[in-house]
Amino acid sequence: MWRQLKMAPKTVIPQDVNPISAELLKLNQYRSFEIYPYKTWRSIPSLSTAIYNICLSTSSVLTGVVSLAASIVIILPIGLVKSTLNPFIHFITWIRNRNNTTPPRRRCVVITGSNSGIGAALALEYAKTPNTHLVLIARDIPRLNLVADQARTLADKITTEVHSIDFLDYENSPNEIYSLLNKLDAEFHGIDVAIAAAGVSGHRSGVLLPPSESAEGHIPSLPASSSTTTLKNDGPSSIATLGSRILQVNVNVTQQFILHSFDLMRSRRRAFPSSSSYNPSIVILSSVASYFTPGNFIFYGATKTYLGILGRTLSLAGVEHGINVLPVTPGFIKSPMTRNMSILGCTVPLATMGDAERLARRVKKREESGERGSPVVWPVWQGLGLYGMRAGSPAFELWMWWGAAAIGMAGWSWS
Ligand SMILES: NC(=O)c1ccc[n+]([C@@H]2O[C@H](COP(=O)([O-])OP(=O)(O)OC[C@H]3O[C@@H](n4cnc5c(N)ncnc54)[C@H](OP(=O)(O)O)[C@@H]3O)[C@@H](O)[C@H]2O)c1
Q1: The total number of structural domains that make up the chain
Q2: Atom number in ligand 1 closest to CA 196
Q3: What is the β-pairing status of strands 193-196 and 281-285?
Q4: So where does this one cross the membrane (predicted)?
Q5: What gap in Å lies between CA 165 and CA 147, rounded to an integer?
Q6: What CATH number does the domain containing 291 carry?
Q7: Using one digit for the tens of pLDDT, what is the confidence trace for 225-238?
Q8: In terms of residue numbers, what domain contains 151?
Q9: Best of 115, 125, 134, 139 to mutate for ligand 1, by most ligand atoms within 8 A of CB?
Q10: 384 assigned to some structural domain
Q11: Which of helix, strand or coil describes residue 355?
């Protein structure tokens, strides 16, 4: 794998990263008909449930109409005025600052999950701005170094440091994240951009398998003190093992990274309230799975919904402190994660998936603009389609979730 990467200088994205085996897939597989929600007479919605669903759909339609009217009558004109005036405002700012001799601030950008896929693309995008220090976090050091080496060639005064932190190390990883963020905050007088991109689905060895059997054998098992051990862990196909591992990476440690960055940024802004050169941002990788999730994407969908809501609400909390919190909801993007899903039967054609590089460009542009109002969605057509599904009533939604699982949209195993 490492040799393959070296021979392909155009991309830092490896083909796949330890997909689970076909045998293991079988243990976790489901059959479409067996999980059909309205299979028995008992499970079919009764009249009262049907009426309740009609009321909920009516409520969605009314909310949609009001939201559409508000968007056309209020948000559209404001957006038009802003876009028209923006070039003049930029010009006036440039005139005012042209004699300013203060050297621009050296930016510190910290990215988790930055040795492959979207995280790596974001690292390379931020490396295009000179005078940036990139802090790259993931597990695999050779792939981290590969991204760091490429990043340093992209602009002047790009420096890098890499850190191998395993979020599945239940005992140590929260402290490692905490200490690293404290160190960076002190060294750079504030972290400028913190990007939470590390994430897993159940299509990768080491998420599903107990550590002793995993190709990524260094991953420690659940500690005795962990509350997750109260769940029954009965081997590789255990839904509890799978759930606790995905939760640990996508939520527990990721949240620690996000919230501690928020606290540090808030303290810095309090110490220098008038400082306009320190405009920190936090970028949170959620997913369109937070809008609509195939029924077998249990933990992935749940954790990404959590991150989506955390990002959108935290963006309100950040207003008071001058912290820009940007949630990102990608659709299917070509990366080792989706490559693993494809190997394991995901029926979404690779050709319809978006590019990590284009997503990264959009994220950086939006983060730097400081604009609030909606998450970054890419590819847009996937976001539009799946966002609309939020308007479905629960009975219809369950049926659609089953339908997406039945056609293997997220592969054929529980994740
Ligand atoms: N690709 C998509 O279609 C898509 C769509 C929506 C949202 N997203 C989200 O975007 C983010 C990036 O996804 P991707 O497609 O780029 O996936 P990816 O290529 O598989 O990258 C996942 C990253 O997370 C890191 N990671 C995984 N397990 C870890 C652990 N236990 N401890 C520390 N780091 C760990 C990996 O590092 P190591 O390889 O060193 O473990 C890698 O850098 C994820 O949060 C994902 O949920 C992806």
Answers
A1: 1
A2: 45
A3: parallel
A4: 50-80
A5: 16
A6: 3.40.50.720
A7: 333 333 334 444 57
A8: 106-406
A9: 139
A10: yes
A11: coil
